[in-house]
Amino acid sequence: MASKRALFGTDGIRGTANTAPMTVEVAQKLGQAAGLYFMRNQSRRHSVVLGKDTRLSGYMIECALVAGFLSAGMDVILVGPLPTPAIAMLTRSLRADLGVMISASHNPFTDNGIKLFGPDGFKLSDEVEGEIEALMGEDLSGRLASPEQIGRASRLNDAAGRYIENAKASFPRGLRLDGLKIVLDCANGSAYRVAPTALWELGAEVIKIGCSPDGLNINDGVGSTHPEKLCAAVKEHQADFGIALDGDADRVLIADENGTLVDGDQILGLIARFWKQHDRLRSSTVVATVMSNMGLEKALSEVGLELQRTAVGDRYVVERMREIGGNLGGEQSGHMVLSDYATTGDGLIAALQVLAVSVETKKSASEICRVFEPFPQLLKNVRYSGASPLSSPELTAAKSWAEERLAGRGRLVLRASGTEPLIRVMAEAEDEALVVEVVDHVCDAIRAITGN
Fold it and tell me: Which of the chain's termini has less CB crowding within 10 Å, N or C?
C-alpha cells in the first residue's frame, strides 16, 4: 500500500514561507529523507541538483535543504535562479540522482515550495512522494552520514548557459527570429536572465518587462497570471509577439500583435496541428486536463486527432503522455509539455515552437494563434473554512442538478485547489447563459454549506 501524503500536494510541497510546512525544519528533514531515499548504491557518490526562483525566502529554504542533503551524505550542485524545466534538464544531463526546485510557481513572494525530480528528469510519482514523506516522519539520526561521508556542496557556474543552449536546440535548425520584435515578461522570476538571452541569440529584438527581481516582486502584477502589462506593451511597441512566463517559467501565455491574449489551449492546438502536418505528433493524441476547452477537443477531432484528459496538474499530463507514448500535452493555464525537448512544462521551449510556426509559415501571430472558437467557459473559486465541502450531500445534489441541465450540451468540473482552501467550479457549453446559471447554482450551494 502506498504511503499517505499530507505534505505533498499536486505540485510538491507549498505554503507560506517560514510557516508550516514551508519551514527550515521541514526543508532540512526533506533533504535528509529524499537524500537517503535516492542513495541506493553505496559504492559511489550521490548528487542532487538544487535550483530556485527569485523569492527572498529561497535563500532560507536552499540553506536548509543543503544541510539536510549533506547530512545524509549526498553532494549538492547549486545552480541558483533557473527555470523549473532547467532543473529537470540538468538532473538528467549531470547524471544526478535527484533534482530539486525551490519555487511556488505563479504564487506571490510570500509563498514558497519544493518540487522534486527523479534521475530521469520527471517529477516524482505520488507513491514515491508518499514514501519520502513517511521517511520524514521517522527518526533518521541513526542513518545519517558518518563524519567522513558528509556530502560536499559546489556551484555549477555554467548552468544557465547549458539551459540556454538546450532551449535554442529546440528551435528548428535553419530558422531564425531575425526581424521579429518580441515583448518578453519573465514575471520577475527565474527566467529573467536565460529567456531574454535565448531569444536575442536566435535573432529577435527583445523588449523586457518583469526582468528586474528584487526578492519581493515575483509575479507582482506581471507574468502569465497578470498579462495586462504584456498586452499593453505589445501594442505600445508595435511588437510582433508577446510572451509571458510565470515565476518558475514552466508555463507561458502569448499575446498577438494586436495585444490579444492567447491561452494554453490555443497554443496546444496550434502546435498539435503544425506537428501533425510535419509528421511529428506521436500517437495522434494530445493530452490536456479536465479544464481545457471543449472547443479544443472539437478542433482536434476535425483533423483526426484525439484529446485525452487528466486531472489538473502537469505531472498528471506527463504521466498520461508516457502511458500512451505521446509527445505533446498541456494545460489551459499555459503549462506546455513537449517531451521531445523537456520532461516537464517549459514555457520558453513552448514559446519557441509558436515562433517557429510563425517564421516557417510567414504568418503573423493573429493569423496562426486563433486555432478554434472556444466554447463559453466560466470558472469561479469559492473559499471555505474547515473540512472540504466536496463530499457533502448538499453539494452532490447541486452537482447532479447542474449535470442534468448540461446533459449532452456541456461539462461541469468541481475540484479542490491543491494549494488553497478553495473549490474551483467550472462549466462550459455553447449556451453561455446556461453556463452562468449552473456555475452560480453550484457556487451558491457551496456558500450555503460553508456559511460564507
Answer: N
